[in-house]
User: Which sequence fits this backbone?
C-alpha cells in the first residue's frame, strides 16, 4: 500500500464543515418541517440554527469553489469529453458495485491526486456541486427572508414553489447521505476513506503505471 | 304666582262671571246690528273688543287641555289692535262663541286641535287660490297633519306678510313653520318629520349658519317642493350639500366603502348626516368618545367587542384618549372595506412605532409575518382564525381589486366549485388556470393571509401579554388557523366576498401553482413531499442494507473467486 496525498487541507476543511453542516441542516430541517411531531429544541432555535448553519455552508461553498478555481486541482472535476469512454467507464464502475464487488473483483477506478473520482462520482459531484447545492443555498436564502427577496421569489413562481424546490433537494440529500456514507465504507477497509478525508492521504495499492501530473 | 284658569268657570276671579256674560251678550248684539267695516282704523279697537279684552288681556289666563297641554287665553290687546286683523275684531273670527254660555266648559283635546279648528275660518278670506303662489305653502295647508294657520302666523298678533318677512332672519322665517310639528309623506308612504328643534340647531357647530346655507334652493322667497321618493333618498340627496364647505372630507368619503355601497344601490350605507346628524352636528371631539362615536349605530356588535378590548378599556374606562377609537384605525371618511389592503396593519404600526423592532427581536422573518398575518390573528387570542386566499395580480404585485371585474370572477368561482361543497385543490387549480387563460387578464395567483374570521373577533384585542407567541400555534400540521380556508375577491360593492375552500388546498401538490403566494412552514406542508421523504429515507437505508446483504450472501462465492485469483505464495 502506498499513501498518496489526495485531499488537500482546504478540501478536507470544506468537506467536514459541509458534512456536519448538512447533518445539522437535515436535523433542524426535519424539526422545522415536522414541528409538533419533532421537538428536540424549540422551533425558534431550530429556525435560527438552520439559518446560521445555512450561511456558514454558503461561505464554506466558496472555500471549495475558490480552491478549485485557483488551483490545478480542478482537474479532478474535468469532465470526460468522450461520451463513449464516459459511458464505458461508468458501466464498468456500475458493474463493479452491482456485481464485481460481490465476487471480490478489484475496483476498476484507481485513485490519484488528479483522478480521485470515478466517472460516476465525477458526473454526480459536478451536478451536485454546481447545480443542486447552489440551488439549495439560493432557495434557502430566499426563504430566509421572503420579503427581502420578494422579487426573486415572485420570479420563481412564489414562496410555495421555492419551498417545494428546497424540500425536494432536502429529500434528495437525505437519500444521498445514506448512499454517500455507505460508499465511503467501500475502501480497502471500512474506514480507509474516512481516515483519508481526515489525513488527506489515501492508501492505494501500488500500480505499475504512475498517474501523470504532480504529486503532493 | 297664582294663575287664573278657565275650567268652566274663572278661578280666582269669581266676580268676572256675571260681568263677562253680560258684556259678551251686549257686544254680540252690537256686532249683529252693526257689522264691522274696514273703516275701523288699525290700533283702535272697538268697545266690544275692549270688553273681550277686559278678561283676555290678563297675564296667566290659561286653560288645561285634555292632553295635558296648557292653552294660553291671554290676548295682548295692543298687539291685536295693531295686527293686520285688528279691524276684524274678536267676533270676526270667533263668531261661534255663544255669549249665553261663554265661558263654556268646552273640552279641548290639544293646542293643535284648537288651532286647527279655530283656523278653519281663515279660509273664508284666504281662499285656496290665493295660496297657490307658494306651492310648498299650499301643500302644507292642504295636509291634514300640517300646522294650522294660527300656529305659524299667530292667532292675534298677525302682521302683514311683507312686513313680517322683512322683520325676521332667514332661519327664524323657516322655523316659523319648521319649528312646528310638521311631517311630509313620501311616495313610499313613509312619514318624514320636517320639524326642527331650534334649541338643537343652536347648540350645533352650525349655529351661525342660516338654513339656506345648506338647504340651497330654499329662502324666504323660494321653497322647493320635495322630489324625493323616500326618507332615505331625501337623507342621501341632502347630504350632497356638505360638499360645499367640506370638499376635502367629502372627496375622502367618496372613495370610501360607504360611498361605494351607496353607489351600488345599498341605501343603508351611511352618508354625512347619518354620522354627524343633520341639524345637531356636534364638535369633532364628541364623535371621538366611546359614548358619542356614531359607528356603533350600524356596527353595534363590533363596537361591543371594541369596548371590551384593551383599546376600548383604555379609552372608555381609563380615559386614555390616545387609545384608538374607530376612526383612528378605519379612518373617519375614507373608510376602506376592513379586510382589504394593509391599511389596518399600517394603522397599528402608525401608533405602535416600535412594533416592528419589537417583533424582530424575537420573531424570525418578522416583516413577513406582519405582512402575511393580521395583527389581530395574534393579538386577539380568543378569536377564531383562518386563512384567506386573495386573488393577487403577480404582474402588478398587488391584490386584485377591480369591482368592475368582480361579477366575472364571482361567476368563475361558482362555476369552478362543481360539487358546491367549497373549492377543493383541483377546482382551485382549474379556477386559476381558467382565469389566467384569458389573454387580457393579468396573471393571477392566490396570496394567503392569516387573519380572524369575523370583524367582531378582529376587535377583541388583548394586551401585549395576552398575545400569541407560540410558533407551534401555526407552524405544525393541523394548526387551528389552517382549518378555515376561504377564497376571497373584492366584490362589486367594494366589500370582500368570501367563498369556502377545502382546508386541503393548503397542503395539496395541486396548490404549488395556484396558491403559490402562501406557505406556512410546518403548517401547510405538501403531503406528497412527506411521502417522498419517507421513500427517500427507506430507499437510502435500503442501499447499504441491500448491498451489505448481497455481499454477505456472496461471501462464499467471493472467497472462492479470490482463492482462485490468488497467485501461489502471495
Assistant:
Amino acid at each position: 500500500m502506498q499513501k498518496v496525498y489526495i485531499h488537500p487541507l482546504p478540501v478536507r476543511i470544506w468537506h467536514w464543515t459541509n458534512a456536519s453542516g448538512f447533518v445539522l441542516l437535515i436535523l433542524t430541517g426535519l424539526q422545522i418541517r415536522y414541528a409538533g411531531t419533532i421537538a428536540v429544541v424549540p422551533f425558534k432555535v431550530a429556525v435560527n440554527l438552520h439559518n446560521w448553519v445555512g450561511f456558514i455552508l454558503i461561505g464554506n461553498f466558496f472555500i471549495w469553489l475558490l480552491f478549485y478555481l485557483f488551483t490545478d486541482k480542478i482537474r479532478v472535476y474535468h469532465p470526460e469529453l468522450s461520451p463513449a469512454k464516459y459511458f464505458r467507464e461508468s458501466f464498468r464502475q456500475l458493474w463493479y458495485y452491482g456485481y464485481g464487488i460481490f465476487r471480490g473483483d478489484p475496483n476498476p477506478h484507481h485513485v490519484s491526486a488528479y483522478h480521485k473520482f470515478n466517472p460516476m462520482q465525477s458526473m454526480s459531484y459536478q451536478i451536485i456541486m454546481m447545480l443542486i447545492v447552489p440551488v439549495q443555498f439560493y432557495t434557502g436564502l430566499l426563504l430566509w427572508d421572503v420579503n427581502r427577496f420578494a422579487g426573486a421569489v415572485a420570479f420563481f413562481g412564489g414562496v410555495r414553489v421555492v419551498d417545494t424546490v428546497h424540500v425536494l433537494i432536502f429529500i434528495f440529500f437525505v437519500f444521498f447521505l445514506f448512499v454517500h456514507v455507505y460508499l465511503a465504507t467501500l475502501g480497502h477497509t471500512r474506514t480507509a476513506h474516512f481516515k483519508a478525508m481526515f489525513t488527506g492521504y489515501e492508501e492505494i495499492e501500488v500500480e505499475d503505471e504512475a498517474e501523470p501530473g504532480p504529486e503532493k | 304666582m297664582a294663575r287664573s284658569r278657565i275650567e268652566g268657570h274663572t278661578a280666582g276671579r269669581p266676580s268676572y262671571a256675571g260681568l263677562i256674560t253680560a258684556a259678551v251678550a251686549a257686544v254680540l248684539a252690537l256686532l249683529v246690528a252693526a257689522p264691522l267695516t274696514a273703516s275701523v282704523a288699525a290700533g283702535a279697537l272697538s268697545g266690544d273688543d275692549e270688553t273681550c279684552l277686559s278678561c283676555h288681556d290678563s297675564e296667566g289666563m290659561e286653560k288645561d287641555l285634555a292632553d295635558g297641554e296648557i292653552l294660553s287665553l291671554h290676548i295682548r290687546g295692543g298687539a291685536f289692535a295693531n295686527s293686520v286683523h285688528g279691524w276684524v275684531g274678536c267676533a270676526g273670527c270667533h263668531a261661534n262663541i255663544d255669549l249665553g254660555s261663554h265661558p263654556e266648559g268646552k273640552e279641548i283635546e290639544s293646542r293643535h286641535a284648537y288651532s286647527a279648528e279655530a283656523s278653519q275660518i281663515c279660509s273664508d278670506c284666504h281662499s285656496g287660490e290665493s295660496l297657490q303662489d307658494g306651492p310648498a305653502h299650499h301643500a302644507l295647508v292642504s295636509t291634514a297633519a300640517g300646522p294650522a294657520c294660527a300656529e305659524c302666523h299667530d292667532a292675534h298678533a298677525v302682521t302683514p306678510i311683507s312686513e313680517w318677512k322683512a322683520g325676521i332672519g332667514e332661519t327664524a322665517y323657516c322655523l316659523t313653520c319648521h319649528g312646528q310639528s310638521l311631517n311630509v309623506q313620501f311616495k313610499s308612504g313613509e312619514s318624514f318629520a320636517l320639524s326642527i328643534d331650534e334649541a338643537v340647531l343652536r347648540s350645533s357647530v352650525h349655529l351661525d349658519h342660516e338654513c339656506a346655507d345648506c338647504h340651497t334652493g330654499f329662502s324666504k322667497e323660494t321653497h322647493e317642493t320635495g322630489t324625493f321618493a323616500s326618507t332615505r333618498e331625501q337623507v342621501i340627496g341632502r347630504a350632497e350639500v356638505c360638499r360645499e364647505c367640506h370638499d376635502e372630507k367629502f372627496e375622502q368619503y367618496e372613495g370610501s366603502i360607504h360611498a361605494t355601497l351607496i353607489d351600488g344601490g345599498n341605501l343603508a350605507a351611511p352618508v354625512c348626516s347619518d354620522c354627524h346628524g343633520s341639524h345637531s352636528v356636534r364638535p369633532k371631539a364628541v364623535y371621538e368618545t366611546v359614548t358619542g362615536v356614531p359607528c356603533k349605530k350600524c356596527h353595534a356588535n363590533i363596537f361591543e367587542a371594541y369596548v371590551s378590548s384593551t383599546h376600548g378599556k383604555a379609552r372608555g374606562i381609563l380615559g386614555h384618549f390616545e387609545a384608538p377609537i374607530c376612526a383612528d384605525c378605519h379612518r373617519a371618511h375614507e373608510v376602506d372595506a376592513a379586510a382589504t389592503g394593509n391599511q389596518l396593519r399600517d394603522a397599528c404600526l402608525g401608533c405602535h412605532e416600535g412594533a416592528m423592532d419589537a417583533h424582530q427581536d424575537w420573531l424570525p422573518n418578522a416583516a413577513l409575518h406582519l405582512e402575511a398575518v393580521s395583527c389581530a390573528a395574534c393579538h386577539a387570542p380568543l378569536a377564531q382564525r383562518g386563512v384567506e386566499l386573495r386573488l393577487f395580480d403577480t404582474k402588478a404585485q398587488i391584490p386584485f381589486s377591480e369591482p368592475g371585474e368582480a361579477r366575472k370572477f364571482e361567476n368563475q368561482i361558482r362555476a369552478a366549485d362543481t360539487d358546491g361543497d367549497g373549492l377543493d385543490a383541483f377546482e382551485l387549480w382549474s379556477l386559476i388556470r381558467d382565469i389566467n387563460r384569458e389573454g387580457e387578464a393579468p396573471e393571477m395567483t392566490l396570496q394567503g393571509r392569516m387573519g380572524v374570521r369575523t370583524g367582531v373577533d378582529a376587535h377583541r384585542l388583548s394586551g401585549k401579554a395576552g398575545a400569541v407567541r407560540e410558533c407551534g400555534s401555526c407552524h405544525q400540521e393541523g394548526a387551528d388557523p389552517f382549518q378555515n380556508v376561504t377564497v376571497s375577491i373584492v366584490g362589486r360593492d367594494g366589500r370582500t366576498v368570501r367563498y369556502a375552500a377545502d382546508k386541503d388546498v393548503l397542503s395539496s401538490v395541486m396548490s404549488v401553482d395556484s396558491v403559490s403566494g402562501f406557505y406556512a412552514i410546518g403548517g401547510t406542508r405538501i403531503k406528497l413531499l412527506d411521502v417522498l421523504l419517507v421513500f427517500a429515507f427507506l430507499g437510502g437505508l435500503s442501499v447499504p442494507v441491500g448491498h451489505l446483504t448481497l455481499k454477505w450472501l456472496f461471501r462464499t462465492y467471493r472467497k472462492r473467486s479470490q482463492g482462485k485469483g490468488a497467485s501461489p505464495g502471495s
